[in-house]
Amino acid sequence: MSRAAVGRAAWLRSLFADVRGRLLGHDLFLVSAGVTFYAAIALVPSLVVAVRLLALVLGPERVVELGDAVGQALPSAQGAGRVVGDLVRTAVDVGWGAVVFALVPATVYGEGLRRGFARVSARHPAPPPRPVRGRAGAWGVRLRAAPLLLLAPVGFLAVLEVAPFLARWFGSGAWGTALAVYVALNVDWLVVSPVLLYVYRVLGPVRTGWRASLWGAYATGAFVSGFLQGFVLFLAIPVDLGSPFGGYTQVGGAVAVCLWLWVLTALTVYGYAVTLELQRRFEPPGPGASTGARAASHPRV
């Protein structure tokens, strides 16, 4: 192994050791479970807003057609395709008054992420900043999250447009399936990473610099997109989700979705902690440091 490779490996070990130290005393899984409550509230309203806005641009028939393609690309074992198709058909007919009302629960995930980020923005044993007091109140954080809902149709459209190709490739043998997984992985990465970049820079209590934010968001996006493909693989397993819950399949399905959101949120919060440590390395606080760097040591609340 070359000296440069050894140096990079040592740098990465040091980085993740510092991330571990930052999370010391903060139960990441417990914090993520709290944020998942907000995500569960926001999930369906966010999808309704995104689909309705997309129907305004493309037309309801085209959106329903693409939604059916997504359903065909998903494994049939758990009936996920039928759920997606029903959601799209319902969302394209939602009235605009209901869409405006849905913005209230749809933006609550931004508030939850802000609270989770605030827990890890202060290194142990310093007390974490309070994320929804002062200049950035809860409604202020939600307003900052609202642009993501306006941009969501763009990312959603990318997923919908590639779905017909994925549906054909998944049924064309091992090589076709491998190609479909590879394309889906990269499409998810390109859709998720810019969202994480916005979330880390705008919703976090620490305004990290562009370099740290780009590295943190796109690295985290790679893991998130991989996990999304893992969830699709899980949907292909022919198990009865209702068995542990007295045969209530709907309950088992809801728990499975919450588990998915929990892991997704844990990855997102961990990625923010990594971004903060990257910020400390790329722009250490000092007399000549920028405002963003000084904020890494003194989070804004």
Fraction of residues in β-strands: under 5%
How would you sum up the major sheet?
Answer: none
Can you write the helix and strand succession as a string?
HHHHHHHHHHH
Mean pLDDT, rounded to whole units? 82
Find the structural class using helix and strand composition.
mainly alpha
- Low-confidence spans: 125-135, 287-301
- Radius of gyration computed on alpha carbons: 21 Å
Structurally, the number of domains stands at: 1
Helical segment tally? 11
Q: Report the helical percentage.
A: over 70%
Q: How does the overall form come out from the CA principal axes?
A: globular
Instruction: Compute the number of strand runs.
Output: 0
Termini Cα gap:
45 Å
Written account of the structure:
This protein has one domain. Helix content is 78%, strand content 0%. It has eleven helices and no strands. Helix 2 packs antiparallel against helix 5 and helix 7 packs antiparallel against helix 8. It is globular and about 55 Å long.
Descriptive labels:
disordered C terminus; 78% helix; globular; 0% strand
Write the layout of secondary structure elements.
Elements: H1 3-23, H2 28-58, H3 60-73, H4 80-91, H5 96-106, H6 108-121, H7 138-170, H8 173-203, H9 210-235, H10 249-282, H11 291-297
Helix pairs in contact: 1-10, 2-3, 2-4, 2-5, 2-6, 2-7, 2-10, 3-4, 3-7, 6-7, 6-10, 7-8, 8-9, 9-10
Short structural description:
By secondary structure, the protein is mainly alpha-helical. It has one domain (16-297).
